């Protein structure tokens, strides 16, 4: 699809959102003959700027480092099929990629390089989330890409589509926008089937819907429509709607900045909060628990508060930062389980800061992961 043809998709009103992830693929950034071009990136940056001015928050997940690296060392393109060569090209191109995005914004652009291992490991997951949330709080624009220079399996097809879905869940986004080089999902590949019809909305990602997706249509990208639907499934499991649109169409991107979508909306199965609480309620817990006093238990139940160190009596077991553990109230009748959640501190640290004020954490431990032992977003009450 070119950037001047009208979109065949019906116009929809975007639902309200506060925080979103925008995924931009290599096909929108790579220049003919190698390197990067601002041709389509400019319109996407204007979409981001419009929402930042409206008080919303955006995280960009951007491909394009390998394509940028090819322009720096053209002779490497011949060997770029090898993993080591692609990793080297990614290392060369990362600075160019960040420079491309920085030129569009007055606010600082922050490079965040992740691998899937960072997001599978619960402690590294918490660290990544804390970093991204702090960058957003500082008013910076995070640009996330894979740390391709050290990853091995992470350069597989569609990886940044799936990475974008994982980042959306990581930062508790309300929406995942995927900018692609076609208008949205069709009933078949429109490049091959002239009878393919646009699909404006997908309520449920069934096998029949997945069968509509084709392969990668770009020589510079690593993903196709199938991986975008996989990403939508991951985002939907976290309660996040996904929106596919043509990032090459100026009209579509301008409409998106005004709250209008011409593309495909893939609905989440449940609300974001419900999905998060369901996961917290059913994820396996580690051995051990945090014992709290009656006042802390009451604050958790009646006020929806986070667990602060002042209400902690003791820690049982030897759990680590990022582990899912039980919260029990220490009373005359024994220990009653009142909640479960992800601990920001290890059992050793919890014992040291228990009964102390939050402002003392840094002094006692020599570091801090925040004021909360368990943040209310990482905690679910039990009946």
From TrEMBL:
Domain of life: Bacteria
Annotated positions binding ATP: 23, 180-181, 222-228
GO (cellular component) term, any one: cytosol
Transferase keyword on record: yes
UniProt cross-references to SMART domains, sorted A to Z: PUA (SM00359)
Record's keyword annotation contains Signal: no
Segments forming domain PUA: 288-374
Binding residue positions for substrate: 63, 148, 160
EC number(s) given by UniProt: 2.7.2.11
PROSITE patterns: GLUTAMATE_5_KINASE (PS00902), PUA (PS50890)
Subcellular location: Cytoplasm
HAMAP family referenced in this protein's UniProt entry, alphabetically: ProB
Family (UniProt): Belongs to the glutamate 5-kinase family.
NCBIfam families: proB
Protein name: Glutamate 5-kinase
Organism: Stenotrophomonas acidaminiphila
């Amino acid at each position: 699809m070119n950037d001047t043809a009208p979109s065949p998709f019906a116009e929809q009103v975007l639902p309200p959102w506060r925080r979103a992830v925008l995924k931009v693929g290599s096909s929108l950034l790579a220049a003919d003959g190698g390197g990067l071009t601002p041709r389509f990136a400019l319109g996407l940056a204007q979409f981001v700027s419009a929402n930042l001015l409206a008080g919303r928050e955006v995280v960009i997940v951007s491909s394009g480092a390998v394509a940028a690296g090819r322009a720096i060392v053209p002779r490497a393109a011949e060997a770029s099929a090898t993993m080591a060569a692609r990793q080297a090209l990614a290392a060369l191109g990362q600075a160019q990629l960040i420079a491309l995005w920085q030129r569009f914004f007055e606010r600082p652009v922050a490079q965040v390089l992740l691998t899937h291992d960072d997001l599978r490991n619960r402690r590294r997951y918490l660290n990544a989330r804390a970093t991204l949330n702090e960058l957003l709080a500082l008013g910076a624009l995070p640009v996330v890409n894979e740390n391709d220079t050290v990853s091995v399996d992470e350069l597989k097809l569609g990886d940044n589509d799936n990475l974008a879905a994982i980042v959306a869940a990581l930062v508790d986004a309300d929406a995942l926008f995927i900018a692609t080089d076609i208008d949205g999902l069709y009933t078949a590949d429109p490049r091959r089937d002239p009878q393919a019809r646009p699909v404006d909305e997908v309520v449920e990602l069934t096998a029949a819907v997945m069968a509509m997706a084709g392969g990668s249509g770009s020589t510079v990208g690593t993903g196709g429509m199938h991986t975008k639907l996989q990403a939508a499934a991951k985002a939907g499991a976290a309660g996040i709607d996904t929106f596919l649109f043509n990032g090459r169409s100026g009209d579509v991107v301008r409409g998106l900045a005004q709250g209008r979508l011409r593309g495909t909306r893939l609905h989440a199965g449940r609300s974001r909060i419900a999905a998060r609480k369901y996961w917290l309620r059913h994820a396996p817990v580690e051995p051990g628990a945090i014992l709290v006093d009656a006042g802390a238990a009451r604050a958790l139940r009646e006020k929806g508060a986070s667990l602060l160190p002042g209400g902690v009596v003791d820690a049982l077991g030897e759990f680590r930062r990022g582990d899912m553990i039980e919260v029990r109230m220490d009373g005359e009748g024994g220990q009653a389980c009142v909640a479960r959640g992800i601990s920001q501190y290890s059992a050793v640290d919890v014992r040291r800061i228990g009964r102390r004020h939050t402002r003392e954490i840094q002094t006692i431990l020599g570091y801090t992961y925040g004021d909360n032992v368990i943040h209310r977003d990482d905690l679910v009450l039990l009946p």
